[in-house]
Every structure is written in C-alpha cells, then in structure tokens.
Prior knowledge:
By secondary structure, the chain is an alpha+beta fold. It has helices at 4-15, 33-52, 84-105, 108-112, 115-131, 134-142, 147-172, 178-187, 192-212, 214-220, 223-226, 242-245, 270-273, 294-305, 318-321, 331-352, 432-435, 467-471, and strands at 56-57, 60-61, 63-66, 71-74, 77-79, 237-240, 313-316, 357-363, 370-372, 376-387, 393-400, 406-409, 414-416, 420-431, 438-447, 454-462. The strands form 5 sheets. Strands 8, 9, 10, 12 and 14 form a 5-stranded antiparallel beta sheet that branches. The protein starts with a helix and ends with a helix. The relative contact order is 0.09.
Amino acid sequence: MKAGEPLAHAADSAAEPMYAAAVKIYPREVSGRFARLRNVAVVVLLGLYYSVAWLTWNGRQALLFDLPARKFYVFGLTLWPQDFWYMALLMIIAALSLFFFTALAGRVFCGYACPQTVWTEAFLWIERLTEGPRQRRMRLDAGPWTLEKLLRKGGKQLLWLAFALYTGFTFVGYFMPIRSITSAALGGTLGPWATFWIGLYSLATYGNAGYLREQVCKYMCPYARFQSAMFDKDTLVIAYDTGRGEPRGARRRGTDAHAAGLGDCIDCTLCVQVCPTGIDIRKGLQYECIACAACIDACDDVMDKMRAPRGLIRYTSENAVSGRSLPRVRGRLLVYGGLLGAAATAIVVSLATRTPLLLDVIRDRNALYREVRGDRIENAYSVKVINEDDRAHRYLIQAEGFDGLQLAAPAAPVEVAAESVATVPVRLQAPSERAAGVHPIRLRVVALDGADFERVEKTRFIGPVEEEHAHD
Length: 472
C-alpha cells in the first residue's frame, strides 16, 4: 500500500456524510412464475387474515383470544390459562420451522409470507393503482405540485389510511368480539382501549408498509442479521452466476456473446430495478435480500428476449454454483426436522387426547384436621372443577387412598356450567384408628352424563400423630 492511499481514502470518507437520508426505492413491476406465486400468497394470506375473524363456530367467534375472560377460542377448542403451555409449544414450533426452512431455502419466508412483505405488496398495489407504473411515479414525485398530483397523492393516502384502519380494526377483532366492536364503532360507543389499539396497529401498518418498507427489513428485523448463522453452502439462495454472466456488457439481440468476449449479462440493471430492497444481486448475496425472486423473473424475461438460456440468476446454492455435488444428508436439516416433527407430533397428540376438564385441590389451611362425631377424623378441601367444554356437565367426586376413607360432602353430583369454574367444598372422613398420620390420597372427578371425562388429583389426608411418635 502506498503512503498516500490512506490519506486519500480518509479524505474521501470525510467528504461523504456519515448519515445520509434513505433514497426512495421505486420497485419496477415484474411478471413471471415467482411473481405469480408471490401474488397468490399475498391474496391467500390477506384473505385469511380479514375473513377468519368473521367466522362463527357453535354460535361464537371461531378464533378469538379473549384476554379479559382469559379464554382462547380456536374453532372447537377452548384454551384456558392452564393450557398456556400449548402457546409455548407453538412458539417452539414456529422457531424450529424458521430454522428448518431457512437452512433449506434461505429467506423464503421473508419473500412470500412475512407480514411486512405481504402488507407492503398490498400498499404497492394501491400506489400503482393511483399513481401509475414506476416511471410515472418517479416523474410525479420529481415534478411540481399540480391538481393531478394532489388528486393522485391524496387518493393514495386515503386508500392507504382506509386499508390500514381496517387492518388495525381486524387485528383488534381477534382479541375482542369483532361483531361487538363493529356495532360499537357504528354506534359511536367504542371504548377508549379499543380505540387506542385500533389506532396503534393502524398507524403501525400505515408507517411500516407505506413508508418504511424495505427499511424494516434492512434495519429493524433481527432475522436479517442472524440468518447467516443458519445458512450453509447447500442452502438454497438467490445467486447470480458470475462465471456465466461476466464480463457483462450491452449487445444486439442475436449477437454471439462468447465470440464478442462477453458473458450472458447485458447489464440492463432490470434485476436492480425490480428489487424491493434496492440491492444489486450481481454483487453477491447480501443480508438485505429477502428472496422474493423478482430479479429471477426479470432476468429470465431478458434471457428469453436475448435467446439465451434461463437461470443466469436463479435459486441455487454455493456448492451448486461452484460445481460441487450436493450431499444427500445434511446434519442440521436432520436435527431441525427431527425436533420440528417431535414438537408437532406432541401438540397434535396432546390436543387429540385432551380432556376438557381440570381439577385444582387446595387443603383447608385453618386446621390440619377436625375430630367429629363417631370417633372420626375429618379433613376439609376446596376443590375447583374447571369445565372447559362448550356444554354443561354433571360430575361425581370420589376419594380413594386407604381403607375407611369416605366422602362426607358433597353428597350429590356437582353440575358445572359450560366454560366455567365451580368451587366445591369437600369434606373427607375416616375412623380415628385408621386416620393417624399422613396419608397420600387421590380425588377423582368423573362425568356422569355420557362424556368420557375424568381427572385425578393427588393430595393428603392428615390425622393425629400416634402416641408413641408424639413422645419421640
């Protein structure tokens, strides 16, 4: 290195601003097989998001996370706070899925199913509808304010705001009954908390999908930063075939590129123009790439016009590009896949065998035991019978553990309403000669109306200490 080079470099760096405003990206419209797949994904995902909240199941909202009532309704399933471990397991499954599919196909989730990508695509559709294609949008932004510009920009903003508001409204509708908040909103009686959360999520959608867009993927999403830890040389990524494309240069259609000393890339920059994050894939894989494959569609279209083979930019891997064969078995895929399969199997089996009945037993802490008539010892308990089913049931409480143990109360079966909790005072008695000491016992609750529901909870029956033990 020459002595003057560091100084020149330092001078160049000093001339550049440390913090520069982000340049607005105008993604060019693109068509092709991956664009169609992305459009289908956007329509399906948005359709599910906006429609599922309105579905009903047995007279109630099919999918509702009722936080005030502390109940989660998932179609025919009602989950209570005691079932929170299902949520933890779902989070584990989501994380393992992310690891598995990232190791297999890179950031395919980001390109097709990430909420930021989906809503940004929807906002771009609105922008193209009101302001026109890419070149017209660029001229409109660069030009002076006219009546046409005001109408187009104003129309876009109104549609954006309406779409964002309905997005926030629907989101809150998954946590509060959506029909109730609709009636309240139409009647002007929407509460302050519902109004706040609708406004907050509407603003988040409007800002992230309307303005921040690729900035969220570049600077706010942590996934872009740690994705390299899950990649290996066999991970499918979008890559530019340098060996085939270089040296790049313009030429007429039908020109023999190899005879002219050129690669297949004609340096049209369409791959850059269609990229939603504004990167040049020809410079290699970058963390900003969300694997949307827009550059593949654009390049394939150019290759078709130039009568060259497709695939100059394609889904591939580092090993495939370098000519090395792919291994048949990849350790990390086996680990991720095995853990994912085990977690998914666990939650499916648990839900399939789940009994919508819970039991909570609390001993009376005021007295260890009581002496009652007939030379008997009595213990008192508070038993909570939790009926998670969507219909009422009658339950019989039984006690078992040692000879002579009897249920003194309740004398009759207990009826518990649908999706409710009944607190039942339970008294157990045993003869004094059999009750001495501490006995492990079980309380059993059995449904009597044909439902195959049964729960057993362990507890203790405490009697007086035997005389010789007391002296010891």
